[in-house]
Every structure is written in structure tokens, then in C-alpha cells.
Amino acid sequence: MTYPDNSQRLDDAHTTLLKVAYSYFPGLLEAHPLWSTYEPPPTTHTTDTISNSNRCYENATTSLHDPSYKTIAQTGVSGWFQDEIIDTSFDILERICRCADHKIALANTASTSEFFKFGEQVLATPDVEVETYKHPRWDSEMLLKFKDKDFIILPISDGYPILLDPDREYKMAEYNDDEDNNNPHFRGAHWSLLILDCRTTTIKARYLDSTSITTNALQTLRRGTSSHECGTEHTASDQEHNNMCARDDGSGACGPFLYQMAKEFVQFTVECREDACQDEETVIGVDVDVDVDTYCVTP
User: Fold this and answer.
1) pTM of the complete model
2) Hey, where are the domains in the chain?
């Protein structure tokens, strides 16, 4: 099934961000039908001023600045996706697919890093009741966003453990120049994805990684699970093999792949639920069965 390309309805920031991310994959500009009903929020730039403005995109929940905006079109280390690129792409995806209407929440990097620090605190003192811990500082905002959601999608950085380093601020100051702006010693070097299935009292998780060699984030995540299964999804995308830009960017494409894996899962879930709602024989209130344990991303 194909759909008309309605991307011209998006403003410059949306169009450029998504088209560059999609350029890694063939055929993805056959736009999802949800594009036709999407109304982009106002931005702070126009085509004439974007190159002169430090902040080229902003809405109530995220912003994107020129250095990061220009990073999207680069390859290799200079093209590594930073936090605000992930946050902006997730925000756009969430709006396009009306995720809140389908009980899906995409977390930003700030919320996810707070989850990590809170989880480390819990794991470090297992004998203390969770309710006695100091909750993340924006706990009320996260609770409102994630309340009653069926699926929660979290961007995972192998740099989150660095947040616990007491010397982090000193190291950041030491490396605070343009040349070392992406130094993994204080920023992390890899993105991956965690999908939480919250439809029952037992939370299930699916970890998606576009490489097979970066296990730091996975090893940290598995510490907080009561049980886990290890295996290889042979049909899952790989950033070096399933990548049109692999020659120039195969080792640095985890950011675009994180976005693509999130997009595939969101779009698949939304389409299933919308198709069920349009089926006259479907009883209102009956949930569509999307099994996160068997779902996998294909190129």
C-alpha cells in the first residue's frame, strides 16, 4: 500500500529533519496517511532567517538549535545525533501519529536520564522501599505524560552512567571546545531503544539496538529486570548492513536508526488500532493485540 507524499504540508524544520532522517532508508517518503491530518506547531524561524538564528525550531516541549540542526546532514562522528535532535524527532513523530490518542508515549532524553538515575538509586539500596526515594524533579510532568499509556518508548544512551560520575562537570569543562564536543568520555557514544509494554501489571520490555557489539546500555538495563531472555533477532535492522549511507556513516548511524525503529513501532501500532476502529465488526473497547515480545523492526 502506498500513500501520497504530503510532506509539503510541514514547515521547513519538520520537512528537513524528517527527510534527512528518512534518506537512510529507501521508499520511506511514501508518507503515512496521518501526515494528511497533521498540523505542525508554530516555529521560531522562517526560511530567510534560519541560517542566522541560533534557535531554528521551538515549541512547548522541545527546541532545536542551528549546530544540531546542521549536524543531521553530516556523516561520521560529526553527524552523531545529540539529545535535542532525538527529542525534536520524537516530538514530531508523536504529533504526526497522534500517539497520545493511541496510548503511546515517547520519552525525551532528559526524562529517560532521570529514570536511569532513579533506577540506579533503587538498585544500589535494594532493602529500601521505593516509595521512600526522592523522585525525579519533574516527576509530575512524567506521570502526566505516561499515565494510562499502553506503550512507553525510551531513548537509551550508553552515556547515562556518566551522569553519576562526580567528576563529570570537571571533565566537561576540560573537553569544552568544538573539537571534542562529541567526546564519549562525558557524552556517550551510542543510542539504542527501549519499548515498554505497560498493558498489564507486569511490565515487559523490548530492547532494540542497531549494532551487535555495543552492550554497555543493555548490561545496565538488565540489572533492573526480574527475568530476561537473550537472543538475536535476525530480521532486525543493522546500521551497517541495512543502510544506504553505510560507506560513510555505518559506524555512526545509531541516531537515525533509533528514530527509525521508534517510527516503525509507532506507525505499526497506530495503523493496527485505527484499522480495528474502522472495522464494523470490532467491538468498541476491545484492545488490538500488539505483542511487543514478537514485534521486530525490518528494513
Assistant:
1) 0.66
2) 7-278
